């Protein structure tokens, strides 16, 4: 019989994937703080500095990238986690976990929440999905795969890629990759289900998938060690880790408010637009009015409104979580917390305006559209040569592969072509395709554009 309620003592376990012995306590840095540091120092995190948040390839040095967005989300997540942790830790009387640990877990999960996103943001995910849906080569690549494996590419998802990045692709010589704690990995799993079992009718956690078949064993270890409740365990479908709701909320708070600030700086929204949408979130009108009257520039007024709004939303979201804690622990809650806070209507209006005037702005759409050509073009260019040379090399007849295929395949780094354990060339259709999408999705915006232009002859290096 399945357990009826998740237990906090398991949910905040300090055990690590790949190093599951009881970790030794450290006086100067907790295991969850170490998770945060490991993510920050990873190369995948550094590449977020040249990956799109909202405005692709922005010429302004003011607007957020995925890296600055992730850092800001982690700050909001730390505040949310700590507020919840104060209540939970006082009640549970933990011996080795304190409120700050909740904040550190959520902060680390937030830091990694976009680490698997491809170039060009969410339109990059759409571009990869589009290639598999429309390309003859893409259809040919999917033909030998299982239902679950094929669904992973048809519905390519940055969240699932993120779990792969932190548990396998970063520090690949380690079992478990970065060897993060199970608590942090659980909190980072927004969609604890495989690709062929996505179903928005199941709740917010059913909208997308959170892991690839290649990482199913890692996923199983996370749910086992944290005690996440099963929904359909044979199919690999589980209830969310409770702190995943806070990670999601931190992301929602950050991007919805901050995108307004960025849009003001780019001239898409006026100060009046920003103020009229954010003021309904704030409660102390007299104090806000008095402070705004002391601020000279509109830019700084926008920054003040942004800071006050985020602070208010953190308070409301932490309260909403604690009011529904029992439902969450019992696996009966599967909604976004932002729907249940006093500022829900104001946030919904901000989201509507963002889609109408920011995300559908001409400059954003133009570069998003270009992303389809770039990512689809890279997949189209590399798949055939990588497959042909792989089969030829495993058969000992590499020279029989076409000169074109041998030339193009040499542009792919070796870690995406060879098995890291056996050293053999990858020929399994699923692993070959998975490694190719690792290569393309791991690119920065700038590198993807530069490589595409070189491969298509649009831009060639010259000397002389």
From TrEMBL:
It comes from the Bacteria. The keyword Hydrolase applies. GO terms for biological process: dGTP catabolic process. Pfam families: HD (PF01966). Keywords: Hydrolase. Gene3D superfamilies: eoxyguanosinetriphosphate triphosphohydrolase domain-like (1.10.3550.10), Hypothetical protein af1432 (1.10.3210.10), putative deoxyguanosinetriphosphate triphosphohydrolase like domain (1.10.3410.10). The keyword Iron does not apply. One of its GO terms (molecular function) is dGTPase activity. Residues 66-256 form the HD domain. This is dGTPase. It comes from Thiohalorhabdus denitrificans.
């Amino acid at each position: 019989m399945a357990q009826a309620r998740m237990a906090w003592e398991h949910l905040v376990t300090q055990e690590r994937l790949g190093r599951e012995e009881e970790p030794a306590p450290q006086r100067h840095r907790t295991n969850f703080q170490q998770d945060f540091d490991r993510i920050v120092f990873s190369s995948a995190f550094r590449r977020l500095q040249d990956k799109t948040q909202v405005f692709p390839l922005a010429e302004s040095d003011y607007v957020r990238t995925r890296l600055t967005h992730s850092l800001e989300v982690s700050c909001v997540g730390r505040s949310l986690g700590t507020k919840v942790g104060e209540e939970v830790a006082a009640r549970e009387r933990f011996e080795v976990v304190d409120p700050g640990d909740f904040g550190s877990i959520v902060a680390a999960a937030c830091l990694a929440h976009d680490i698997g996103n491809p170039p060009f943001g969410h339109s990059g995910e759409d571009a990869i999905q589009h290639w598999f849906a429309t390309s003859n080569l893409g259809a040919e690549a999917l033909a030998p795969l299982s239902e679950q494996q094929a669904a992973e590419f048809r519905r390519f998802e940055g969240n699932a890629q993120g779990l792969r990045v932190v548990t396998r692709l970063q520090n690949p010589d380690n079992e478990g990759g970065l060897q993060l704690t199970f608590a942090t990995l659980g909190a980072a799993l927004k969609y604890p289900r495989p690709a062929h079992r996505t179903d928005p009718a199941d709740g917010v956690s059913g909208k997308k998938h959170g892991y690839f078949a290649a990482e199913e064993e890692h996923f199983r270890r996370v749910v086992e060690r944290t005690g996440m409740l099963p929904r359909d365990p044979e199919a690999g479908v589980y209830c969310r880790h409770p702190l995943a709701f806070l990670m999601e909320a931190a992301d929602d708070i950050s991007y919805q408010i901050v995108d307004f600030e960025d849009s003001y700086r780019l001239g898409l929204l006026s100060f009046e637009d920003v103020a009229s949408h954010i003021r309904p979130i704030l409660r102390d009108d007299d104090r806000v009015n008095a402070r705004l009257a002391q601020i000279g520039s509109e830019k700084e007024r926008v920054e003040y409104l942004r800071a006050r709004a985020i602070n208010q939303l953190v308070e409301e979201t932490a309260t909403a979580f604690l009011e529904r804690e029992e439902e969450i622990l019992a696996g009966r809650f599967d909604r976004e917390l932002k729907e249940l806070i006093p500022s829900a209507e104001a946030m919904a209006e901000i989201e509507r305006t963002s889609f109408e005037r920011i995300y559908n702005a001409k400059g954003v759409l133009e570069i998003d559209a270009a992303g389809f050509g770039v990512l689809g073009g890279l997949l189209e260019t590399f798949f055939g040569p990588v497959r042909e040379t792989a089969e030829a090399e495993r058969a000992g007849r590499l020279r029989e592969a076409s000169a074109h295929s041998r030339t193009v395949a040499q542009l792919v780094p070796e870690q995406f072509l060879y098995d890291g354990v056996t050293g053999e060339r990858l020929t399994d259709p699923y692993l070959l395709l998975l490694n190719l999408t690792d290569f393309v999705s791991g690119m920065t915006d700038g590198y993807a554009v530069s490589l595409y232009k070189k491969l298509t002859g649009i831009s060639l290096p010259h000397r002389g």
